[in-house]
Specification:
- The protein is built from seven helices and ten strands.
- By secondary structure, it is α/β, with parallel strands linked by helices.
- The strands form two sheets. A six-stranded mixed sheet has the order 6-7-8-3-9-10, with helices on both faces.
- The chain starts with a strand and ends in a 12-residue tail after the last helix.
- The protein binds adenosine-5'-triphosphate.
- Adenosine-5'-triphosphate binds next to helix 1.
Length: 239
């Protein structure tokens, strides 16, 4: 559905951040993008959402060049950013969700129905009239996800979705991600959390230093995790 083919991205002063990256996000599947800090996960998400120019290679949506389908294709691809403050800027939660729907030409009744459905799904019904800036981090994260799901994109790209969430919020998030798979959405989850991708992903791509070093179904071989600095071997305090 959404494919990166041999993608290269360079950033000024940094050099090549993505090196010949190929990856496919398929409908009805959860694709894990696993990599340590600085591997290039956010950069790849931005490129696959058409928000960053690539230097070489291709990004394809349904087999056709994504960039030639912009800006229309942006509605088909939702990005849930790592920091919810990067995507929330309306006064109240309800305004935030309605704003996302303003471009779709829906009736007021249809808009309210969508807001009600997504709010129930993410457990934010009681937050709808609250000012966004006064929400907790976990609440903001749920609102940020709702503001994407409310316009019903076919592809949803999550950047470090479980960072800074407590166990209950992680459970709610995983339920949401699994529900998207049941709805036949194409889902990408970028994270450094090996346990998370091992539990939910149908296929995993390991990204290390801008290159895909492994892809396949979990479990991920231990030597691949070690080579990508992802093995969980942090010791305690030295005596
Ligand atoms: N706008 C930018 N300007 C300069 N360098 C950048 C910029 N964005 C990313 N980089 C660099 O590109 C590399 C990849 O960054 P990226 O944010 O894509 O990695 P990541 O895998 O998402 O990391 P993390 O897990 O820490 O969020 C890093 O070395 C980062 O410092």
């Amino acid at each position: 559905m959404l494919t990166a083919e041999g993608v290269w991205v360079s950033l000024p002063g940094v050099g090549s951040v993505l090196k010949e990256v190929s990856l496919e996000v398929r409908a009805g599947e959860i694709t894990g993008l696993l990599g340590p800090n600085g591997a290039g996960k956010t950069t790849l998400i931005l490129a696959m959402a058409g928000l960053l120019k690539i230097e070489r290679g291709r990004i394809l949506l349904d087999g056709r060049d994504l960039y030639s389908q912009l800006p229309h294709a942006r509605r088909r691809i939702g990005v849930v950013f790592q920091d919810p403050d990067d995507q929330l800027f309306n006064p109240t939660v309800r305004d935030e969700l309605l704003f996302a729907l303003d471009q779709l030409g829906l009736s007021s009744k249809e808009k309210e129905e969508r807001v009600a459905r997504v709010s129930a799904q993410l457990g934010i019904e009681d937050l709808l009239e609250r000012p966004v800036h006064a929400l907790s981090f976990g609440e903001k994260r749920r609102v940020a996800i709702a503001s994407i799901l409310v316009y019903d994109p076919e592809v949803v790209l999550f950047d470090e979705p479980t960072a800074n969430l407590d166990a209950r919020s992680v459970k709610l998030l995983l339920d949401t991600i699994c529900e998207l798979r049941r709805e036949r959405k194409a889902v990408l989850v970028a994270t450094h959390d090996v346990e998370l991708v091992s539990r939910v992903a149908d296929r995993v791509f390991v990204l290390y230093d801008g290159r895909i070093t492994w892809s396949g179904s979990p479990p991920i071989p231990r030597e691949i995790l070690e080579d990508a600095s992802l093995s969980n071997s942090v010791g305690g305090c030295a005596e």
